[in-house]
Every structure is written in structure tokens, then in C-alpha cells.
TrEMBL record:
The keyword Cell cycle does not apply. The lineage of its organism: Eukaryota, Metazoa, Spiralia, Lophotrochozoa, Annelida. Transmembrane segments: none annotated. NCBIfam families: hemeryth_dom, Hemerythrin. It comes from Chaetozone sp. EP-2017. One of its GO terms (molecular function) is iron ion binding. This is Hemerythrin. Fe cation 2 binds at E60, H75, H79, H108, D113. InterPro entries: Haemerythrin (IPR002063), Haemerythrin_Fe_BS (IPR016131), Hemerythrin (IPR050669), Hemerythrin-like (IPR012312), Hemerythrin-like_sf (IPR035938), Hemerythrin_metal-bd (IPR012827).
Length: 120
């Protein structure tokens, strides 16, 4: 997948989608993945990440629904596919999974989330 993964892993302005709620949640997801990467054996951090991901998808999908966003079905499918991959996750998290999560978040925001800019 294409976009550069920031190192250290943190949200920056290039991820802005111009909705404060979503930008704040995205920042939280970067922090949650950073925390898992820093302490892959800490199951509390892993579960915090999963909760934040689930809550964010619910919130983003709610905004898309409310706005009658045309591409919501395909977008929700991408969220569901990610959840399927991480839902059983527990510490210790291996390096490949951390890399996958970082890359998925970066590329999902820059490829898929940006498409709703100005439409919600
Ligand atoms: Fe999304
Ligand atoms: Fe998002």
C-alpha cells in the first residue's frame, strides 16, 4: 500500500479531513497504535486500540449515514474487513500486525476517508 507511514507514528496535518470530531478520533487512533507498538505485550493497550477503532468506525459511519453519503456501503465494507482482521487481537502483538495496522490506518485515511471531505 502506497502512502508513507510516519515515523514516529503520529497524526499530522496531511491526515486532516476537516471534520473536528473525526480528526480528533483519527489522532486518537494514531496514539493507540503508537502505544501498542511501544508495548506490544500490554493487553490493556491492545484492547484500548480495538475499542477506539470500533467507536471511531461507528462515529464515522453515523456521520456518513446522516449526510446520505453515496459511497457508504463500500466504505463500511472496508471498516468491517479491518475489524475482521483485528477483532481477536490480544497481547503479545507481533511486529507484522503492528506494521499492518499502521499502514492500514494511513492508507485508509488518505485513500478512503478523504473522499468524504466536504460531503458530510
Ligand atoms: Fe473510514
Ligand atoms: Fe476514519
Amino acid at each position: 500500500m502506497g502512502f508513507d507511514v510516519p515515523e514516529p507514528f503520529a497524526w499530522d496535518e496531511s491526515f486532516r479531513v476537516d471534520y473536528d470530531t473525526i480528526d480528533t478520533e483519527h489522532k486518537g487512533l494514531f496514539v493507540a497504535i503508537f502505544d501498542v507498538a511501544a508495548a506490544p505485550s500490554d493487553n490493556a493497550k491492545v484492547q484500548t486500540l480495538l475499542t477506539k477503532v470500533t467507536n471511531h468506525f461507528t462515529s464515522e459511519e453515523g456521520m456518513m449515514t446522516k449526510a446520505g453519503y453515496a459511497d457508504i456501503v463500500a466504505h463500511k465494507k472496508l471498516h468491517a474487513d479491518f475489524i475482521d482482521k483485528v477483532k481477536g487481537l490480544a497481547a503479545p502483538v507481533d511486529d507484522g500486525t503492528v506494521k499492518f495496522a499502521k499502514s492500514w490506518l494511513v492508507n485508509h485515511i488518505k485513500t478512503t476517508d478523504v473522499k468524504y471531505k466536504g460531503k458530510l
